[in-house]
Design a protein that fits this description.
Blueprint lengths: L3 E2 L4 E5 L16 E4 L12 H11 L7 E4 L11 H9 L9 E4 L18 H6 L5 E5 L16 E5 L5 H8 L8 E7 L9 H8 L9 E7 L2 H8 L10 E3 L7 H9 L8 E3 L7 H11 L5 E3 L7 E3 L2 E3 L7
Parallel strand pairs: 2-3, 3-4, 4-5, 5-6, 6-7, 7-8, 8-9, 9-10, 10-11, 11-12
Antiparallel strand pairs: 1-2, 13-14
Helix pairs in contact: 4-5, 6-7
């Protein structure tokens, strides 16, 4: 569960239930988290009611960030209603700069159970929005969009649809500095290919991009090979290929590709590298000043003569 939005220096504050009489902070002093109690029985407050009560209880014009948790049983109730609430309030939430939709813990819903929707109306309604985060990808849609001020775009999923990846890659986001995509596995909808990623790996698509995360993928070796020669890498300060099935094959491609020593951070956490390959990485970056994360090494599972590697997040 989100507790702090670092880019905006805001702690996350849970908007209280009706019976809770605690004093509310100033509208712009926190990131407001709105969620229904999934364990509150039939008497629980609806998300619609909580949303309206929120707008009536704070100064909407001062709100800078909104985090949306459970809006109901998310496995059969997509985020379209949440998106519409945000769109309808665009003339009131005039200072809104950050939105995160789907802040649920595993106990509330597995990530693959979180049903989303077309989230791009939020960007269209808030031309000054700087950060958009989405957790869950069932029915997620992200058609290509143009937005002048978005700086951070984050997708957390166990299977990001290729259609959505292609939409991001075709978008015009000249201010985008941070892009993170958990690509996941095909069994949970993650059917994006390296070809889908090609436009965003090219030079010039996102001129301000400084961090690229292509994570949690069952084709992590193929992604590593594509990244090894991708023009976009030269402009990055940090690269994240963690959480996936990266093996010595993908790592070899990274070492034999373009220099990566200009990076400040290279994250390969949760990987399937041999000890010898990890030593080669440590030696390659020893004098470069690049912080390389090789934590959480995994061992493949064996079924007979076959090896099976797994991503960190799927279901």
């Amino acid at each position: 569960m989100l507790r702090y939005l670092e880019e905006h220096d805001l702690r996350v504050f849970d908007f209280p239930d009706p019976e809770d009489q605690q004093e509310l902070p100033e509208a712009g002093a926190v990131a407001w988290r709105l969620a229904v109690d999934l364990y509150g029985g039939h008497e629980r407050e609806s998300f619609d009611n909580k949303w309206n009560r929120f707008l009536d209880s704070v100064d909407p014009a001062g709100v800078r960030a909104i985090v949306v948790g459970a809006w109901g049983e998310t496995y059969d109730n997509g985020s379209g209603g949440v998106v519409q609430h945000l769109v309808d309030a665009r003339d009131r939430l005039t200072s809104l700069r950050a939105v995160f939709i789907g802040d649920l813990e595993q106990e509330e819903a597995e990530i693959s159970w979180i049903e989303q929707s077309d989230v791009t109306p939020v960007l269209k309604a808030y031309p000054l929005l700087e950060e958009l985060g989405i957790r869950g990808s069932t029915d997620l849609r992200f058609p290509a969009v143009r937005h002048q001020h978005l700086r951070t775009l984050r997708f957390e999923s166990g299977g990001l649809p290729g259609e959505g990846v292609r939409g991001v890659a075709a978008s015009e986001l000249p201010a985008l500095e941070y892009l993170e995509m958990w690509l996941g596995v095909e069994d949970y909808g993650g059917d994006a290919t390296v070809a889908d990623l090609a436009p965003l790996l090219a030079h010039g698509r996102f001129p301000a991009l400084r961090h690229l995360g292509l994570q949690d993928s069952e084709i992590q070796d193929e992604i590593a090979a594509a990244v090894a020669s991708a023009p976009v890498v030269a402009q990055l300060k940090s690269l994240d290929l963690s959480m996936g099935t990266l093996s010595d094959t993908g790592a070899e491609a990274l070492l034999n590709g373009q220099p990566l020593t200009h990076l400040e951070h290279l994250n390969l956490e949760h990987h399937f590298l041999s000890e010898a390959m990890m030593e080669r990485f440590r030696a390659a970056f020893a004098s470069a000043g690049t912080e390389v994360n090789l934590e959480d090494p995994q061992a493949p599972e064996r079924w007979g003569d076959e090896e099976w590697r797994y991503v960190a997040v799927s279901e």
